[in-house]
Amino acid sequence: MPITNKSILMAALCAGAFIGQVKAQSLPPVETQKANSDYKPAVAGQTRIGGTQTQTKLNVMVINKQLKSPWALRCLPDGRFLITEKGGAMKILKADGSFDKNITGLPAIAVGGQGGLLDVNFDSAFAKNRTLFWTYSEQADGGFQLAVAKGQLSADDSKLENVQVIYHAKPAYNGHLQFGSRVVFDKQGNLFVSTGEHGAEDIRMKAQDLGAAVGKVVHITRDGKPVPGGPFAGKSGVLPEIYAYGLRNPEGMTMNPLTDELWEAEFGPRGGDEINIIRPGKNYGWPVVTYGIEYSGKQVGDGIQQKEGVTQPIYYWDPSISPCGITFYTGNLIPEWKNNLFVGALGGSHIARLVIKNNKVVAEERLLKDKNERWRSLVTGKDGALYGVTDNGNLYRIGK
Q1: Closest CA to 171 of 206, 208, 134, 201
Q2: For the Glucose/Sorbosone dehydrogenase domain, which residue ranges apply (predicted)?
Q3: Global pTM?
Q4: Would you say residue 313 lies in a domain?
Q5: Rounded Cα gap, residues 133 and 290, in angstroms
Q6: For a pLDDT cut of 90, what percent of the chain falls above it?
């Protein structure tokens, strides 16, 4: 091909774009504070990876300021938003953020502490069966526990019908902390549900107990039964619905659209927040293995960060950012974000953008730190923008 001014210009532009990308990926790490411990990562790049910076000029808008402690945010097939509020309300907002519907018919919810109405998701065949699944804390013998329910949304979107409670994450505990929980569907329409271990020293070891449903990811059918052929199926004294274990407070969970693998955000103790790829039968260590310490400053257990048979996180934070809802960006509005993982940070008051390559975090960015918001849930909208709800009751649109 003959060399022309045009080809030289195109080569220069491509080289410039490449150099710009390299420069963006080689920024200093975004975390500059001192870690809580002197623990060392198991592999290079497992924490404090180099920074990156979004080149697209972002347009950030609050499109609803009237929510009350929103917990879950989903984008319905028609572009509207399905939202839960921890106090017990479920509602639909229009695509522009304005109010549309209140949804009634929920079962009794035990609201208190970190408990209340939590996640919601719609069936993969929602257009035909109108089925929603949601999680919430309920009162039970011995205290409180996570429950999973389902019901059909009425034709006018105003109430849930044929409501059934399909699963209880036992044992119950007399406390209101760390219930998890997210609901994600596999390709067959079965449910992955994450459960917290209730955040107390006298129950946290249940995260390692295969006879207990706390501190786990469970894999259940639409009717709440164990999905056949699970990693612990047929083993005596073991709950067959357990898919993975050794989790503390898994408040974020989503499917990677490129690999169809389940990713989880782990709310650690003081330090030790994690991003994990959840695989069948794997042990993720809590509370035996962790990069965090107790809030008191003491080590957790024996202070172990690596152990045979325990799966390492692909990434962790120390100090904590308190990760909550996570989502992979699947829109086309901001191409440089494609398939990046976005993590809502509560204590960190920002959205973490993680650039992923070959199942490893290769760059990190902190977005909207200036808003001083606790980001509870994130989703890609039908228009390709990123949407997020915050504990202050705001629904944000982040796009162009």
Answers
A1: 206
A2: 67-397
A3: 0.93
A4: yes
A5: 32
A6: 93
Q: Is residue 32 part of a domain?
A: no
Q: Assess if residue 35 is contained within a domain.
A: no
pLDDT given at position 322: 98
DSSP code string of 29-66 = PS--SPPSS----SSTTSSSPPB----SPPEEEEEE--
Burial class (CB in 10 A: 0-12, 13-18, 19+), 139: middle
Determine the structural domain holding residue 104 and report its residue range: 44-399
Residue at 345: amino acid letter = A
Number of domains in the chain: 1
| Under 8 Å between Cβ of 327 and 379 | yes
Half-sphere exposure of 130 (CA within 13 A, CB side): 13
Q: Taking a C-beta distance cutoff of 8 angstroms, is the pair 349, 372 a contact?
A: yes
**Closest of 271, 361, 342 to residue 44, by C-alpha:** 361
| H or E stretch covering 129 | helix 126-129
> Is residue 335 situated within a structural domain?
yes
Tens-digit pLDDT profile for residues 124-174: 999 999 999 999 999 999 999 999 999 999 999 999 999 999 999 999 999
**pLDDT score for 22:** 39
For residue 375, the SS3 value is strand
